[in-house]
Specification:
Helix content is 26%, strand content 29%. The protein is α+β, with helices and mostly antiparallel strands. The strands form 3 sheets. The chain has a 6-stranded mixed beta sheet with strand order 6-7-8-9-12-13. A 5-stranded mixed beta sheet has the order 1-2-3-4-5, covered by helices on one side. The protein is globular and about 45 Å long.
Length: 214
C-alpha cells in the first residue's frame, strides 16, 4: 500500500467478517468498508485509533457485510456508498434474512445514499479507488481498487485459496469466475488484496495456485 494508506481489520459477528477501516495515517480520515454488525465494537476501534470516518462503503448486500450499516451511519452521521444497484433486493431483505438466521433485531434494511457503477471512483483523504462491478457472489458486488497503492478490497469475490459462494440468492458460479478472470486478473499479479473473510493475498498467487481458478 502507499505510505499513508492503511487498513485496520475488525472481524465482526459470528460470520467473522473482515469489517475494514481504510484510512490515511497522516490525517486519520478514512472509510469503513462492510460494517456487518457489532457496531459498538467497530466504534471502539475507531475511537482507540483516533480515526474520523468520512463514509461507509459496501461491497455487497449480504447480511454479514451490511447488517450494521444503518446503525453505524446514524451513529457517525455519514453516507452509505455502494454497492451496485443490482443488490437492492438483498439490502431490502436484510431484516427478513436476520429473522431467518435467528439473529438479533439490530439488523436493519439498508438504503444507500449512492449506488455505484463500473468505472466510477470513490475517494477519501486524497486516496482514489476505482469501482469494479464484479457479480457472481452477489449481483451488485463491487470491488474497490487503488491503482497508486497496488491494492484492492475484493469483498467476497476472491479469497486466499478459494472464491465466493455462489449458492446464495443471486449467485452464479460462471459469472463469478468471469468477474475474477476479466476484472481482477488484469489488474496484475503484484496487486495485494483484502477480502471479506480470512487472510488477504496477492492476485498473482491466486491466479497460479487457487484450485478454483487454475
Amino acid at each position: 500500500m502507499a505510505a499513508t494508506l492503511n487498513a485496520l481489520i475488525i472481524p465482526v459477528t459470528a460470520f467473522q467478517q473482515n469489517c475494514t477501516v481504510l484510512f490515511d495515517s497522516e490525517t486519520k480520515h478514512g472509510v469503513v468498508v462492510d460494517p456487518g454488525g457489532d457496531v459498538d465494537h467497530i466504534r471502539e476501534a475507531l475511537d482507540k485509533n483516533g480515526i474520523t470516518v468520512d463514509a461507509i462503503w459496501l461491497t455487497h448486500g449480504h447480511i454479514d457485510h451490511a447488517g450494521g450499516a444503518m446503525d453505524l451511519k446514524e451513529a457517525l452521521g455519514v453516507e452509505i456508498i455502494g454497492p451496485h444497484k443490482d443488490d437492492k433486493m438483498l439490502l431490502d431483505g436484510l431484516e427478513a434474512q436476520a429473522r431467518m438466521f435467528g439473529l438479533d433485531d439490530k439488523v436493519r434494511n439498508v438504503t444507500p445514499d449512492r449506488w455505484l457503477e463500473e468505472g466510477e471512483t470513490v475517494s477519501f483523504a486524497g486516496h482514489e479507488f476505482e469501482v469494479l462491478h464484479c457479480p457472481g457472489h452477489a449481483p451488485g458486488h463491487v470491488v474497490f481498487y487503488n491503482r497508486t497503492a497496488g491494492f484492492a478490497h475484493v469483498g467476497d469475490v476472491l479469497f486466499r485459496g478459494s472464491i465466493g459462494r455462489t449458492d446464495l440468492p443471486g449467485g452464479d458460479h460462471a459469472t463469478l469466475i468471469a468477474s475474477i478472470k476479466t476484472k481482477l486478473f488484469p489488474l496484475g499479479d503484484n496487486i495485494g488484496f483484502i477480502c471479506g473473510h480470512g487472510p488477504g493475498g496477492q492476485i498473482g498467487e491466486e491466479r497460479k495456485t487457487n484450485p478454483f481458478l487454475t
